[in-house]
Amino acid sequence: MNLLRAIATIGGLTMMSRVFGFVRDVLIAALIGAGAVADSFFVAFRLPNLFRRLFAEGAFAAAFVPIFSHLLEKNGREMARRFAEDALGVLALGLIIFVCVIELVMPWAIWILAPGFDAVEGKMKLATELSRIALPYLLFISVVSLQSGVLNSLGKFAAAAAAPVLLNLTLIAAMLGFADYGKTVGHVLAWGVFAAGIVQMAWLTYHCRKEGVSLHFLRPKLTTDVRLLGRRILPVVFGASLYQINILIGTILATLIADGAVSYLYYADRVTQLPLGVVGVAVGTALLPKLSQQLAAGNNAAAATSQNRGIELALLLTLPAAVALFVIAQPIISVLFERGAFGATETEATARALMAFATGLPAYVMIRVLTPGFFAREDTKTPVKIAALAMVLNITLNIILMRVWGHVGIAAAASISAWLNASLLALTLSWRGQLALDQRMRTRWPRIILASLGMGGVLYFSCAVLAPFFETTLYFSELIRALALTALIIIGLLAFALLANILGAAHWRDLKTLRRASTPPT
Fold this sequence. Notes:
Elements: H1 3-32, H2 36-75, H3 77-104, H4 106-113, H5 123-134, H6 137-153, H7 158-178, H8 185-210, H9 224-257, H10 261-296, H11 300-327, H12 329-337, H13 344-358, H14 361-375, H15 382-405, H16 407-431, H17 439-470, H18 477-503, H19 510-515
């Protein structure tokens, strides 16, 4: 599968997942708003997600895929499959022990994660209950992450990219079908998370078998390749933990600001995750096995071209998205979430957080696009050192800015530290001679910025013109607001497309070049 098709496949399915994710969050906002139950569930959901990213997705994507791809290239599919089974056995045993320990110490873990919950009666107990229900999701999703690495290395991206859709569909079904049967809606959602892990694992088990790489749970064996995987995973886990520590500290501090602050940041982050997932995750996921295979074959010129086209596509899609999220944050949050228990006050607080997150969106995406340049060369330590510096800055800014801007300061601190991270990654690759912008990239990126800013101006004035439609109190007000937001999005897309073409930031013929991303430019 070529790079463009892989990115399109992953991006398209990630977009579908994000759409269903918005439906999920709209239901959550309508049913439980941004109060105690919502805060408790988001903390409970963040716990398995934190460890999933710590032990599974980040570590395995960075360390597992290059080793599996190398074995696949040099020794064939059967040898690569045996390595995957050995890794699965060790991973499963370690995670079973880990989950059992965390379940036992859950009350103390929640006290560390959300100390501010003590100020609201019953909130700490509720968060503990929901976390104990949701935590086993970590076991299932870790297996899913390894299965995804196998399929991605084989050039089969669709099944793995579709797995998050199943999570959102399961949670939507839980709320629609069982909201009145649980102790609280939070309990229903926590059990939905548990069930979603089983559904996702079954889905990818089927697709691995379909591709002839059926994986079985074997007795754990520390083979030479598994030991190598362990040595490479350790620094990546540490690096991933630094990023997760940033998120964790932001959550902890948010619990100390005000009731609902955790929820404001969650809803704003969910909107930011749409372009981050569709662009950053898609490009990064497709780029890692591509670079690994090209470098293993000694084709450095093709790897350089793939890296340039990945960066170009990421900027072309991310910069206008960041500007748009900043300019029309209020209408976006209002249309998506303002109903039921989620009122105007919650909309205003969440919109301000979204504006702060939007300023860092290009940096978040570039981190995803640049790190494969290290991982594909089997360097897992340098990104860790850079992430450590960014973490120190993030913690410092969190403490300073939350005193001035409250929960918005936490979002701003995350964006600033992300820019430091992305900048240092790019500079390091450049110093090593592993990243050099080609002529096309050097001429395109300033034009992409200009086109994005021009689109932002168009959106600002269009938003002012359409403002009465967002404030309407007519019977069909929700439909009117949704149509007004749709009009803004269409105006923004057309404005950027026109400006990008006029300024020379992008052309339709670029699709042909991207389809040939594995060959150097002429």
